């Protein structure tokens, strides 16, 4: 294997394992900044060594063990002001390897979940909580987080630095909070898990359109959270949404990784078990007796697609109504864009086009690639193919995902000689 290929493999492994390593290190160093620095150090070691030695059979365990040794060395060098060192010595054996696999799969003492609640502490602003948790648990770069939130990258970087400093100065504990405090952090935790899943479902950048393992990790965390906060309808709503969306993975990309859009997917490839799990979670949310929140509403929309035997049998009128309720609950321009698609499918493309044109004046949507992409779709249906081609070309210039760019350029080419 060529060195460049090894480096790509290492980077992929790192995206999968980094959150677990940082969370595992938190047991020892109790400082997010130090944990991330140590994790980054072993990543660099892997980049230097593995091209020569080969990638280990269990790369995650190798990285975890190497990071643990560095943490122990740090504890010994600093002695952690004697008292902290003595406290930690009661919890860990510095001379024996712990069972990392058991620790990471423990359904009760899940380090990743502890880390989520730590990074979503009320001391931090809502924006900082999400940015920090996505950085540490989702393995997203500051650029990817900025794109997800439609804000400058420098803003995200500053939020992360300040958040780490705030948590360190306040000595925030590494634990899942008690019930009273859990409620105050839940909305941020849900948002973080939601964005982790979305990044895996439609990657912001890179050579792959989907990152299934990131979705799997978000779904795993969501299921754990549903056990802890089982009386919260929105927890079940988010789990329902992720279960149903994850059911489409086999149909979502073609043989060479090319994107396959929802209306073109082979629905026989959808995972019926995940759909059943999602519908059951949605029913749990409904049985709470409260109005459906944003996640449950999105799950209800996903359920409409999942329950339609074919694309042509989709209940777009119901989906448009659900999107209207979701738009009132979130006041999000991206939700409005999705609502425009539903309205166009239910009542005609001219209605959708009018809604999209109104969104064009929204500052946060100026460089959002899906706006011209959706507009191009509507123009095609209205027979305005020359204009559609320009919209697809603009959308292709704005996206940073290679697969999505290829798809958009292909669509532009299809209408290049028409109009």
Describe the structure.
Among the domains are: 230-314, no CATH class; 332-419, Tetratricopeptide repeat domain (Serine Threonine Protein Phosphatase 5, Tetratricopeptide repeat, Alpha Horseshoe). The chain is built from 21 helices and 2 strands. It has helices spanning 3-29, 32-53, 59-78, 83-89, 100-105, 111-119, 126-137, 142-149, 153-170, 179-201, 212-228, 233-246, 249-252, 272-286, 294-306, 316-330, 333-347, 349-359, 370-381, 385-398, 402-414, and strands at 205-206, 400-401. The protein has a two-stranded parallel sheet with strand order 1-2. The protein is globular. The N and C termini lie far apart (48 Å). Residues 92-109 have low confidence and may be disordered. InterPro entries: DUF6596, RNA_pol_sigma-70_dom, RNA_pol_sigma70_r2, RNA_pol_sigma70_r4_t2, RNA_pol_sigma_r2, RNA_pol_sigma_r3/r4-like, WH-like_DNA-bd_sf. Residues 24-79 form the RNA polymerase sigma-70 region domain.
């Amino acid at each position: 294997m060529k060195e460049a290929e090894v480096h790509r493999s290492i980077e992929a492994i790192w995206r999968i394992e980094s959150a677990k390593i940082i969370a595992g290190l938190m047991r020892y160093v109790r400082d997010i900044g130090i944990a991330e620095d140590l994790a980054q150090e072993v990543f660099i070691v892997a980049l230097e060594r593995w091209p020569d030695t080969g990638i280990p059979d269990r790369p995650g365990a190798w990285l975890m063990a190497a990071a643990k040794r560095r943490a122990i060395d740090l504890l010994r060098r600093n002695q952690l002001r004697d008292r902290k060192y003595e406290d930690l010595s009661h919890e860990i054996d510095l001379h024996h390897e712990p069972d990392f696999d058991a620790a990471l799969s423990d359904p009760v003492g899940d380090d990743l979940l502890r880390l989520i609640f730590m990074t979503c502490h009320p001391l931090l602003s809502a924006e900082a909580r999400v940015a920090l948790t996505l950085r540490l648990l989702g393995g997203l770069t500051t650029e990817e987080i900025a794109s997800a939130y439609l804000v400058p990258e420098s803003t995200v970087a500053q939020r992360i630095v300040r958040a780490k400093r705030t948590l360190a100065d306040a000595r925030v504990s590494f634990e899942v909070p008690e019930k009273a405090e859990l409620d105050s952090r839940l909305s941020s935790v849900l948002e973080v898990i939601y964005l982790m899943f979305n990044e895996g479902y439609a990657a912001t950048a890179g050579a792959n359109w989907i990152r299934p393992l990131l979705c799997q990790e978000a779904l795993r965390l969501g299921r754990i959270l549903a056990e802890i906060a089982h009386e919260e309808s929105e927890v079940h709503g988010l789990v329902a949404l992720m279960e149903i969306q994850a059911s489409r993975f086999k149909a979502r990309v073609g043989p060479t990784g090319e994107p396959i859009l929802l209306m073109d997917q082979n629905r026989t490839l959808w995972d019926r078990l995940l759909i059943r799990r999602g519908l059951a979670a949605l029913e749990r949310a409904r049985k709470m007796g409260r109005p459906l929140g944003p996640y449950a509403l999105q799950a209800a929309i996903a359920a409409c697609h999942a329950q339609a035997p074919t694309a042509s049998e989709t209940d777009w009128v119901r989906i448009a109504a659900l999107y209207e309720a979701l738009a009132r609950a979130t006041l999000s321009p991206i939700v409005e864009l999705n609502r425009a698609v539903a309205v166009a499918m239910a009542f005609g493309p001219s209605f959708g086009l009018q809604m999209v044109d109104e969104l064009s004046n929204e500052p946060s949507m100026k460089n959002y690639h899906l706006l011209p992409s959706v507009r191009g779709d509507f123009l095609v249906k209205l027979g305005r193919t020359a204009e559609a081609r320009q919209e697809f070309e603009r959308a292709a210039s704005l996206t940073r995902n290679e697969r999505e760019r290829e798809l958009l350029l292909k669509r532009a080419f299809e209408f290049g000689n028409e109009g």
